[in-house]
Each structure stands twice: as structure tokens, then as C-alpha cells.
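User: For a teaching handout, I'd like to show students what a predicted protein-ligand complex looks like in C-alpha cell form. I'll give you the sequence and the SMILES for NAP. Please answer with just the structure.
Assistant: Understood, here is the input followed by the structure.
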Amino acid sequence: MKATLPTPHLRSFPSPTPLSFKLSFAFPETRRKSLSISSTPKGTPSPSLAYVPLRVTASSQAASAPTVNLTAIPTEMKAWVYGEYGGDDVLKLDEKVSVPEVKEDEVLIKVVAAALNPVDAKRRQGKFKATDSPLPTVPGYDVAGVVVKVGSQVKELKEGDEVYGNINEKALEGPRQFGSLAQYTAVEEKLLALKPKNLDFAQAAGLPLAIETAYEGLERTGFSSGKSILVLNGSGGVGSLVIQLAKQVFAASKVAATSSTGKLELLKSLGADLAIDYTKENFEDLPEKFDVVFDAIGQCDRAVKAVKEGGSVVALTGAVTPPGFRFVVTSKGEVLKKLNPYLESGKVKPVVDPRGPFPFTQVDEAFSYIETNRATGKVVIHPIP
Ligand SMILES: NC(=O)c1ccc[n+]([C@@H]2O[C@H](COP(=O)([O-])OP(=O)(O)OC[C@H]3O[C@@H](n4cnc5c(N)ncnc54)[C@H](OP(=O)(O)O)[C@@H]3O)[C@@H](O)[C@H]2O)c1
């Protein structure tokens, strides 16, 4: 049966009252504390949040092993949909979207958690419309969930496997019309890996696109043991993982990273040897130069002034100044499989923004939040019913 989207008609409206988020900062070596923070419903970050020390660990938390019915797959599901490009007001929660069919090399996943990336917002704004799939769109790249059905050519995965991945092999070229912000999503087996055992679904959902970008960017610069690196935007989804991979996987000699004042401690907790406050210092004026500059904010013109002669500058977004270069991430389950041991040992940790996880009914608010460009680590959606 062909999966078709009816015209979106149902909308879940965010609560007009202030939301209260319970934050749990785990300090496994020493102590565990939690606190409540109130925030406004439409995405303006609480000013006090920037000064809260953040540390999100890889220890397994409550959002684990849901009960998933492997036999009773419905024909219709709840999904977030937009039928036209625009602001976050084009997003609607529709309760009657057809559950996608699986092709022979694909699996159907009961989505337990998903995550947003800036590309979700840029795509919804129509910035990639020339290469996008046709509207209407169920957005969402990142998923963590349970396999409920396998195609005839699927080799390794089986029903009941807990998996995670970025469902779009090419981020901008024909991303799937039916994404991960839904109760079910279909995806090629080769884009998935088994979920690291120590991570819950919410933690795992935030990893795929960001960690694949971090890893591919480091590889493309030829990064290797003993090299130094400067990460511009060390507190975002990608940068928080570049810091950790550079240190833990590639054995960097020195990692420097930029953020605003309130996030400097986070950078250090992730392994940065030097945390640079971009509100007070210009990184390009430092006497020290780096083998690699990883620009995850769009400052390539400045980044090239901070690299050593013969070094590499990778720019994820914005205009590119030579010798900087840009790439667009390719989703690969193999990369997740390769990095799973680092995640399972706790050497590399997911960073989940403490404003979330956002429940499924508040995906539009989560979009508004990521569009503030102030998210710390990943904006995660959980639970998904
Ligand atoms: N080419 C690709 O394949 C690819 C793949 C992934 C992402 N991207 C792009 O890369 C960019 C980063 O993605 P992301 O997911 O990491 O974004 P993100 O998580 O949304 O980044 C948010 C972070 O940016 C920081 N920030 C804002 N202004 C800054 C500045 N001037 N200097 C340093 N940090 C600053 C904020 O920290 P403060 O609150 O401290 O300012 C916040 O923590 C996006 O534009 C995304 O579209 C491209």
C-alpha cells in the first residue's frame, strides 16, 4: 500500500501556561542533583539557564525499554506534518497519516525518541526546496526506536532490535518525505546501528546526524593523533561531539573551543583544554594557531586566520573562505557502529539540552527553540506515544 499523507488538519496547540522542566544533571563520580526551571512555552530560553553548569552523562536514565507491540502495526499514525514551506506555524500534528510501507532493504521503526537539527528548520523554511522531496513533509532526520518490521532483503536487523540513526543518507538531496517526527518511520538498514546499551532512547536520538557530521568533518580534514584543533561553537549539537571525538577517538594534542560565558564549563567537561568566551575574546587574535579549525557556526572568514600554515578549515555553514572547505554529511550506520564502543564505555557522551526532552505534542515549540540558535547539545523529542 502506498503511504499517502492526507491534508494536515489536526493541530496540537501548546499549553498557554508556563512549562516546568525538570532538569537532572548527573555527576557520576561525585553527586547527582536535580532542579526545576520554569520557561515560557514559545522557545525563549530562560536567562538563568546559560549559567547552570551542564553535564549530561551516558548513564542510562528512565526513558528505556518501552513496550512495543511488534504484531499490531496500525495503518495510520500521528505525525507532525507541513503542507507548505514557512515558519513554525506551518507545522501541524496530524493523527491520520499513513504508516509508511517498507522497501526490501528497509525496516519500519516504532519511533521512541527523535531529535531536531538546524537542517530541519532550514528545510521547513524552504531553503533546500530545489532538492527536497515533495510536500507535504513529515520532518525529522534523527531517530531512536524499535524495529517492528523488516523488508525482504534486510540482512542483520530483526524485529525487536533497538536501533538509532539518521534516516536521510544525503541531508539535502531528496530527504525522506516521511521523517522521524512520527510514531513510525521507514529507513534503510544501512543507515542504522544498534542503540548503545548504556544509553536510553532520548540520549541515543540526539546523536546520529551530529556525531556523523563531527566524525566525517574530522576525517575530511585528515585529523590524527597529536594534532590540535579549534572548534567554533563547541556547545552545539555538532561541536559538543567534535570536542569529544577529537580528544577520545583521534587523540588530539589540544582541543580549544568557543562558546558564550555560561557554557565554558560545559566545554571543559567535554574535554576542551582551552575554552574561549566568544563574547570577550576574538579567537583569531590569539597568538596560538591550530592544525585544524572546525567551524560549526559560519565564521569561515575568521576561522582561516586561526589555522596554521598548511592546516585545514572545515566549514559546516555559511560562506566559505579558502583554504576552508565545506561538505554535507552522509548518513552511515557504519560510522555509528564504529563509534558505539566509545559511547558504551562513556568516553563519548551525548549532550541533551536541559530544556528538553520535549514531549511529542510540543514539537513546534522544540522547533522554535532550536531556531533561537541557543540550544545546548541536542533538542530531543521524547516520549513519542
Ligand atoms: N554541512 C553539514 O553537513 C552540517 C551538518 C550538521 C550541521 N550543520 C550546520 O552546522 C551548524 C551547527 O549545527 P548544530 O546542530 O551544532 O547547531 P546548534 O546545536 O543549534 O548550535 C547552537 C549553539 O550555537 C552556539 N553559538 C551561537 N552563536 C555562537 C557564536 N558566535 N560562537 C560560538 N557558538 C555560538 C550557541 O551557544 P551560545 O548560547 O553560547 O551562543 C548554541 O549552544 C548549523 O548551521 C547546522 O545547520 C551542517
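For the handout, you might add this sentence: The domain at 1-207+350-385 is CATH 3.90.180.10 (Quinone Oxidoreductase; Chain A, domain 1).
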